[in-house]
Amino acid sequence: MQATLMSDGEFKDWYFWPEEMFEHEIVGPFYFREDKEGMACAFRAADKHMNAGGVVHGGCLMSFADFSLFAIAQPYMDTDSYGVTVAFTSEFLSGPVAGDYIEARGEVLRAGGSLIFVRGLITGNGKPVLNFSGTIKRIRPK
């Protein structure tokens, strides 16, 4: 899947996947880029991301974690393949609020023939929010 570079705004020079409308237009927008520390994924928490308790909805955080699995694993994906999440776990650590800068970082633990194992941590303004791990299955088109 081809990523698109943002040309303006807070996330100028960050990438997103325009084909992933759920992640970009509905629950996001979510962005990613590589920097000196590795792959970074981010979004700015807005009112639309809040639950009734005034913190970012857990479903939003889990969606962002799933997005981050694929961004972190991107260097291990073939250009002619795509992936699906086959396993995902997470633990909520705290609740970020509107205006917080939400970031995910992580690592690929193992990339085999068809499975990629990833783990990561989401922070809100630098404070741990959610830890996650997941497994991606690479699918090669026939």
Overview of this structure, please?
The chain is of the alpha+beta class. It has one domain (4-139): Hotdog Thioesterase (Thiol Ester Dehydrase, Chain A), CATH 3.10.129.10. Helices cover 15% and strands 43% of the residues. The chain contains 2 helices and 8 strands. It has helices at 21-26, 58-73, and strands at 4-5, 15-16, 31-35, 38-44, 82-92, 101-111, 115-124, 127-139. A 6-stranded antiparallel sheet has the order 3-4-6-7-8-5, covered by helices on one side.
Topology, pairings included?
Blueprint: E1 4-5, E2 15-16, H1 21-26, E3 31-35, E4 38-44, H2 58-73, E5 82-92, E6 101-111, E7 115-124, E8 127-139
Antiparallel strand pairs: 1-2, 3-4, 4-6, 5-8, 6-7, 7-8
Total count of helical runs of at least 4 residues: 2
User: In percent, how helical is the residue content?
Assistant: 10-25%
Mind describing the biggest β-sheet? 6 strands, antiparallel
How many domains in all? 1
Shape: globular
Order of helices and strands: EEHEEHEEEE
- How much is the radius of gyration in Å? 15 Å
CATH domain topology: Thiol Ester Dehydrase, Chain A
Strand order of the largest sheet: 3-4-6-7-8-5
Name of the CATH homologous superfamily: Hotdog Thioesterase
Percent of residues in β-strands: 35-45%
Let me know the number of strands: 8
Mean pLDDT: 94
Structural class: alpha+beta
Give short descriptive properties of this protein.
Thiol Ester Dehydrase, Chain A, two-stranded antiparallel ribbon, 142 residues, alpha+beta, 2 helices
